[in-house]
Structures are given as structure tokens and as C-alpha cells.
User: Which sequence fits this backbone?
């Protein structure tokens, strides 16, 4: 490029990235919207998931696109290459990991949020008020006092990390934010159960405390933290000069959906002066169901709760959330003054506190909008009923497993998660194959976990679309593939998903 052309490009022109023809983009947009509504409406006609061919995968490798491509052509690649190979969690047969199903309402709200393109780091505008309203609704749901604070984040992994950071600041005072952990920081000790999610150990690592500073306490027969063992571990650590500062209890463990004795842990934390955090990634929203809420008793005493609206709340990804009882403590862990973020008494820079005072992010999207639409459109009673229904389906699956001599239940069913397996010699290998067979068949998508050293087929029922027939199809598929695998046969699986816009 010569110096002249470089200068030419710096001349102001009227060119923008807006479409030259608004009617054309409107027609294309309506088509996309219709297609995606059809996609959700007809989701049962599709396989839950299908693997990508090498040829498809290669279509995602190309040079940086310096020249423009027609919107219609890019959209065609989306319909042909992306849609048939999506995760599958919109489908009622998806029961792997813990994935929410999303709703059309949430999808539409995402579109509106993208149109407004609001930045929720701070400033004085209505989108911030929407997020504040959800903070207040969540505060009410968990019986937290006025003065509690909350913030949307990516997911519970981030919310748990932030809770550790808030508790760390509360334990060590302001110096930890200026000087780092120092000698005092190296003595901090945290506790959770052996059944807790791996992101707790990762949070300790990222917070600079080290995952070795996390005591993983034994669980009882129902996979709940052993509170007596927790009490002794705290006493032992104090006796050797360490500084216990936080206990992370689980409201719904990832493996089997166990709920720790939250009231027991709350009481222990109160007498020991420890921060009581609850990882309620999916289970905390069971508060929305009057039948299930009593199982969470004690959660109202937590110092902080991490949860995901994108799991049992059915809000589209991502919509994690952290609620903190004492908003001052929360703010002290993250607020940092900066001249360019000055608060005013009038104008767009008015209002305080800003969300950027409560977490590591400055620029933040409008996750609150899809959550606001979801909570208001369905009402929390209906969302709670969907949660209760998932638990009823899990009990149906449990009964089916207990009634089939070829199947074995591997853990008590607490909420919505059923762990079982096909009986076989070399059961770990066979059940691993069965799960892959079921996934590749497009019939259902369970996942696996290890329980007491045994590989389990794990079905977590989260999607509001899942029904009895989906659970029965999973059982039938496991039996079919299990019998074939035990007989040494490799199931023949051929499926093809319809394109989105044929
Ligand atoms: C899903 C889950 C997490 C992690 O949440 P993300 O939203 O995936 O970051 C943590 N704990 C439990 C119990 C979970 O189920």
C-alpha cells in the first residue's frame, strides 16, 4: 500500500456498516426468525445430536475473510453446517451433563438485547434497572435482606470464583487487594465435599490460594457432606495454625444431585465465623417449586449463592448469577476507582453502585433481559413446576431401571439425576460404548460419570420439553445397544439431520 492510499482511507466518508437496502435485510431477518422458530417447534423431528464429518469440519477452516460475503450466503452456511451439528440441548432427548433447554421467549429477548447493544458495566439507563430488578427478585426468592447484592456472570464457575474472592477479601481485609496474599493468605483454608464440582478447586487455584488449600470432606451414603468430619477438619486446621475462612456447600451435586445439609453447615459456619457459600448451580432454583423448596432449608442463611439461570431456569446461555448477603462486602472485593469511570449526580454517568463494582468485568452484555422476559412471561410458578416435573421424570427413570433386570441403579435419585448402568462383565467399557452409541444414534444424549470407581450412565433431566416417552426411548436405546455390545456386535448407526432451511 502506498502512502497516498493510506491517507485516502483516512478521509471521512458516509459509509457505515448499516445495510444499503433495509427491505432486503428485513426480509432476510424475518426468514431467520421464522426458521429458528420452526427449529424449536419441530425439534423432535431432528436427531438430538449428530457427529460432524471431516468434510464438514474442514469447511470451518479458511483464511481471514477480508472481503464481504452476502448475508444470505453466510446464513446458508449456518443452516447447513452449524445447525445440524449443534449441542442438542434444545432437544427433549438431551440428558447429558446439566444443560438447560432454552425457550423461544429467551431467544426473542436475546435478539432484542443485541438490538439495543447495551453495555451493563454501569451508567444510568433502563437496562441496568432490569438487572437490579432481577437482583431484587433473586434476593426475595432466597429470603436475603435488603442490602444484598447480585450480579450476572457467565456461569456458576465464575460465580463460585467470585464468592471465594469476596470471602478472601473479607478474611484478609483491604491489604490483600494491594499486597497480594502474603503470609496470612498462605494460611487460608477452604472446605467443600468430595462430591463438589471441580470449579471450586479451580477457583482456589485462580484466587492464588492453591487447590491444596481446599479440604475435600467425605460424604455420607446419600453423597452429602459429612458435617461431623467437616467440624473436625476445621478444628484440626486451627490447631495447626491455619486459618479456615470459607465452606462451599452444594445444593445439587453435579454427579447425583445431592443437597448438603445446608442448615447444619450454616450453623457450623456461624459458630466458627466462616463464610458460608452455596454452589446452587442448578439446584438452587428448586426454590421455585413449593414441593422442593423445603429440601433447601438453610440456604437462606448463606453468605453467598452461585446459580445458573441457564440450567433449570431455561434461560438461553449464558446467565450465571452470584447473590451476596452483604452488598458492602461484595463491593469491597471488586470496586476500583478510575477517573474515566467517575460517577456524577446527573447525566448518563449518574447513579452508583455500578455492576462493574461487583465483579471483574467492565463491559458486560444484557443477560438480564432474557432472564427478565423468561421470569415474567412464564411466571416463576410455571418455571418451578417444570423443575418439579423433571424430578418426577427422574423418578420414572429410576423405576424403569429398577424394573429391568439388565440395568442397575448406581446412586440414590435425589432430584433430577439418575445414574445407572447396563450389567455386563467389563461394565465400564461396555457402558462407555453404550453412551456413545446412544449419542450417535440421535435418540438421546446421556453422559457418563464415575461413582465409587464405576462408570455410570448419567441422565440429568433439565429440559422442560422432556417427557415420559423421551425417558422410555432412552431406556429402550440403552437396552438395545447394551445387548448388541455384550454380544460383541457394533451397532449400525446411520442418521441425517434435516437442514434448517431446505
Ligand atoms: C454446572 C455446574 C457448575 C458450573 O457451572 P457453569 O455455569 O457451567 O460454569 C458448578 N457446580 C455445579 C453443581 C454445576 O452443576
Assistant:
Amino acid at each position: 500500500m502506498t502512502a497516498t492510499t493510506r491517507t485516502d482511507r483516512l478521509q471521512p466518508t458516509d459509509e457505515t456498516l448499516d445495510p444499503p437496502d433495509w427491505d432486503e435485510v428485513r426480509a432476510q431477518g424475518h426468514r431467520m426468525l421464522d426458521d429458528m422458530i420452526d427449529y424449536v417447534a419441530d425439534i423432535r423431528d431432528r436427531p438430538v445430536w449428530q457427529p460432524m464429518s471431516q468434510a464438514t469440519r474442514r469447511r470451518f477452516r479458511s483464511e481471514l475473510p477480508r472481503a464481504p460475503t452476502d448475508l444470505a450466503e453466510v446464513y446458508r452456511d449456518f443452516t447447513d453446517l452449524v445447525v445440524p451439528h449443534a449441542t442438542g440441548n434444545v432437544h427433549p432427548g438431551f440428558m447429558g451433563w446439566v444443560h438447560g433447554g432454552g425457550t423461544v421467549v429467551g431467544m426473542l429477548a436475546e435478539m432484542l438485547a443485541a438490538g439495543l447493544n447495551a453495555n451493563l458495566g454501569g451508567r444510568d439507563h433502563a437496562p441496568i434497572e432490569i438487572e437490579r430488578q432481577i437482583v431484587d427478585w433473586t434476593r426475595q426468592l432466597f429470603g436475603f435482606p435488603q442490602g444484598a447484592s447480585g450480579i450476572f456472570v457467565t456461569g456458576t464457575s465464575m460465580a463460585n470464583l467470585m464468592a471465594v474472592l469476596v470471602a478472601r477479601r473479607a478474611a484478609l481485609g483491604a491489604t490483600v487487594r494491594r499486597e497480594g496474599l502474603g503470609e496470612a493468605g498462605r494460611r487460608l483454608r477452604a472446605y467443600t465435599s468430595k462430591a463438589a464440582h471441580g470449579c471450586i478447586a479451580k477457583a482456589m487455584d485462580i484466587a492464588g490460594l492453591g487447590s491444596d488449600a481446599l479440604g475435600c470432606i467425605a460424604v455420607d451414603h446419600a453423597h452429602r457432606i459429612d458435617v461431623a468430619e467437616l467440624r473436625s477438619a476445621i478444628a484440626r486446621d486451627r490447631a495447626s495454625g491455619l486459618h479456615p475462612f470459607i465452606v462451599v456447600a452444594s445444593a445439587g451435586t453435579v454427579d447425583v444431585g445431592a443437597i448438603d445439609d445446608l442448615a447444619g453447615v450454616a450453623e457450623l459456619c456461624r459458630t466458627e465465623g466462616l463464610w458460608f457459600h452455596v454452589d446452587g448451580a442448578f439446584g438452587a432454583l428448586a426454590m421455585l417449586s413449593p414441593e422442593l423448596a423445603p429440601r433447601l432449608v438453610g440456604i437462606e442463611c448463606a453468605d453467598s449463592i452461585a446459580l445458573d439461570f441457564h440450567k433449570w431456569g431455561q434461560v438461553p446461555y449464558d446467565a450465571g448469577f452470584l447473590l451476596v448477603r452483604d452488598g458492602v462486602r461484595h463491593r469491597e472485593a471488586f470496586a476500583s476507582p478510575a477517573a474515566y469511570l467517575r460517577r456524577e449526580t446527573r447525566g448518563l454517568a449518574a447513579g452508583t453502585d455500578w455492576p462493574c463494582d461487583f465483579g471483574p468485568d467492565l463491559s458486560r452484555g444484557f443477560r438480564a433481559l432474557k432472564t427478565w422476559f423468561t421470569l415474567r412471561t412464564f411466571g416463576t410458578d410455571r418455571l418451578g413446576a417444570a423443575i418439579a416435573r423433571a424430578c418426577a421424570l427422574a423418578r420414572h427413570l429410576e423405576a424403569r431401571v429398577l424394573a429391568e433386570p439388565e440395568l442397575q441403579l448406581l446412586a440414590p435419585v435425589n432430584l433430577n439425576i439418575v445414574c445407572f448402568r447396563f450389567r455386563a462383565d467389563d461394565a465400564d467399557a461396555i457402558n462407555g460404548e453404550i453412551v456413545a452409541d446412544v449419542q450417535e444414534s440421535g435418540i438421546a444424549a446421556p453422559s457418563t460419570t464415575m461413582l465409587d470407581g464405576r462408570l455410570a450412565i448419567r441422565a440429568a433431566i433439565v429440559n422442560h420439553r422432556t417427557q415420559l416417552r423421551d425417558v422410555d426411548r432412552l431406556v429402550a436405546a440403552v437396552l438395545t445397544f447394551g445387548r448388541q455390545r455384550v454380544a460383541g456386535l457394533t451397532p449400525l448407526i446411520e442418521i441425517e439431520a434435516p437442514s434448517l432451511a431446505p
